[in-house]
Write a structure and sequence with these properties.
The protein is mainly alpha-helical. It has a domain at about 5-75 and about 345-370. It is built from 17 helices and nine strands. It has helices spanning about 15-20, 50-60, 70-75, 95-105, 140-145, 190-200, 210-220, 220-230, 240-245, 315-340, 345-355, 365-375, 445-455, 475, 510-520, 540-555, 560-565; strands spanning about 5, 30-35, 35-40, 270-275, 280-285, 390-395, 425, 430, 490. It has a three-stranded antiparallel beta sheet with strand order 1-3-2, with helices on one face. The protein has a two-stranded antiparallel sheet with strand order 4-5. α12 packs across α16.
């Protein structure tokens, strides 16, 4: 046996104890004599508490501290492809005309609507991007800043993103988003184009609406749009100014045509709409300037609780289909552009390509990489070149912070309802009907998969370019109950040093706080559900933690090409 002499201060008593406990049948013989520690050659590979000293003195060649298994696991994290995966539901991926439109639309704030100054539970918030009712000036780039990891670093208080109102989660990076199996933190969309249109009409994100979006395209992008999307022609023949001249601007009938001698001027491009209850009729432009599906079935003329007086639901079905087709094309163009936003060639990628001990990352980052795939077990979930397993896990993250809803704030019948009752028999022998939770935001993937199964813009829908795409069928067949309450999709760690705050609700402001959470291993009392059993104390030393951070910092990719990340000239 070869014996090595090292200063005792290198390894503390806890480290020595853990080496003995975890080395199994390998010999780890510790003898203390004054300030001298004797340690056998056969110590655990990659044990970071004192590993850097052992590496220097035990290894005969650079990088020999890597075991074959650890290096294989680390290598599997590198080399994200240069092109996004195929999406059969969007034939415009790779199409230059669609990409160019998507690039412009990503930065064009004219597609957004007015500030709502509400949160996801429809509660008032103190501020948003603009005063309530005023144009928000929000674009995709507002919450996905390509100059800063493609996240929102401008929101105050900073844990969740702010658009026309307050989100319940922070904005995930757009970089590399095309590699996710499902979109959003909770997985409620199965393609980038479906994610884009959901955000465009979301009441706290852009608060746009499909009629307004179609009109902006018709007014500003007509020629380029028609060339790129001949299969989804614009149904409006002229500009929106022609409609503006016909409609009332104020009052309960705002958006409806001005009556002429008490009658609807059908000869000027207006039409009568009859209320679903058979009551009052309305007089709408053939294509109103604003409108999206409401919460009530049928046409409720002038209903203030429905978007824009229910202008959308008072349209005929063929017109609705034509506008929705344009709306979907809008999402597919954005997705075509976003699929090009790929962060690659990080220092870690180059290190793996060159081999262990190449010096292309710091010794601390190399030790952190061994920890990541070894004792810290980070790669159990953050694996593949995306550094995400695309699965849902409950990590015991505190469900706290301004705008972040808790289960207690989601009672039965509320906007957010987390009350789930199985079918059964009550104490008096009477049958009890099953009651599902509805819009239970704190449950993450359990709520998201239920929404995905009802989503009308899936890969297998009529809006897909290939409705036979069954690549996400596993999520459609599963019971949402298979996902634990409080489980959220694993985010990629590429560019993670740029994307604070962390976790779905932005509860941790720094990477140090994230690592401390994992090191504790038992979750937080204010979390949702039961943390995954894999979550256990890691007993990381201060050196271990700094090494992990050095590794995470090595995952920052090269800047996107200027022509992709800079706003183009808009019409």
């Amino acid at each position: 046996m070869r014996i090595l002499s090292i200063n005792v201060d290198v390894c503390d008593e806890k480290t020595s104890k853990l080496i003995n406990e975890e080395s199994g049948n390998r010999t780890a013989e510790i003898v203390r004599a004054g300030h001298i520690l004797l340690l056998s050659l056969l110590v655990m590979p990659g044990f970071s508490g004192c590993g850097r000293y052992l590496d220097e003195q035990l290894c005969g060649s650079a990088g020999c501290a890597w075991s074959d298994g650890d290096w294989a696991r680390a290598s599997a994290l590198a080399g994200l492809p240069a092109t996004a995966p195929e999406d059969r539901s969007n034939k415009h991926l790779g199409d230059a005309a669609a990409e160019a439109l998507g690039h412009k639309w990503f930065f064009d704030a004219r597609f957004s609507g007015a500030a709502t100054m509400l949160d996801q539970l429809r509660r008032p918030v103190p501020y948003a991007r603009a005063p309530k009712g005023q144009p928000s000036g929000t674009s995709c780039a507002t919450c996905h800043d390509l100059a800063n990891g493609s996240i929102d670093d401008t929101s105050v208080p900073g844990n969740v993103s702010v658009g026309t109102g307050w989100f319940d989660v922070n904005a995930q990076p757009t970089l590399n988003a095309a590699f996710y199996t499902l979109s959003f933190w909770n997985g409620r969309a199965d393609s980038l184009w479906a994610q884009a249109i959901a955000a465009a009409e979301g009441g706290v994100s852009m608060n746009g609406n499909r009629l307004h979006i179609a009109w902006v395209i018709a007014d500003l992008y007509r020629k380029d749009y028609q060339a790129a999307f001949p299969e989804a022609p614009l149904p409006m023949a002229g500009p929106s100014s022609e409609v503006t001249a016909l409609v009332q601007a104020d009052g309960a009938a705002a958006g409806q045509c001005t009556l002429v001698n008490g009658a609807c001027p059908v000869d000027q491009g207006c039409r009568e709409a009859v209320d679903a209850a058979g009551g009052a009729s309305g007089c709408w432009p053939h294509f109103p300037l604003q409108g999206k599906p409401g919460g009530k079935a049928g046409c409720q003329v002038g209903d203030a609780s429905e978007p824009f007086g229910d202008a959308w639901d008072c349209m005929n079905k063929d017109d609705q289909t034509a506008i929705t087709r344009v709306f979907v094309a809008f999402g597919k163009a954005l997705a075509a552009y976003e699929a090009k936003l790929i962060s690659r060639n990080s220092a870690f990628d180059k290190f793996v390509d060159a081999g262990p001990g190449s010096g292309l990352i710091s010794p601390a980052a190399e030790r952190g990489a061994r920890l990541f795939v070894g004792r810290a077990a980070c790669s159990d979930c953050h694996n593949t070149p995306l550094l995400s397993d695309n699965q849902f896990h409950d990590l015991g993250v505190p469900q706290t912070g301004p705008g972040v809803p808790t289960e207690a704030e989601c009672p039965a019948g509320g906007v957010c309802d987390c009350v789930e009752i199985p079918a059964g028999i009550d104490a008096d022998g009477n049958p009890v009907a099953e009651k599902a939770a509805k819009n239970c935001l704190p449950w993450g993937g359990r709520d998201g998969i239920a929404k995905l199964q009802k989503n009308g813009f899936r890969r297998d829908s009529s809006w897909s370019d290939d409705p036979t795409d069954t690549s996400r069928k596993v999520y459609l067949d599963m019971s949402p109950g298979e996902i634990a309450p409080g489980a959220w999709r694993t985010p990629s760690l590429r560019d993670v040093a740029l994307t604070a705050p962390y976790m779905h609700d932005g509860v941790f402001p720094t990477l140090e706080a994230v690592i401390d959470h994992y090191d504790r291993g038992n979750g937080a009392a204010s979390g949702v559900g039961v943390p995954a059993p894999q979550l256990r104390p890691l007993f990381l030393s201060a050196t271990d933690k700094s090494d992990l951070i050095a590794f995470l910092q090595s995952l920052t990719g090269e800047p996107l090409p200027v022509e992709l990340r800079v706003a183009p000239v808009l019409p």
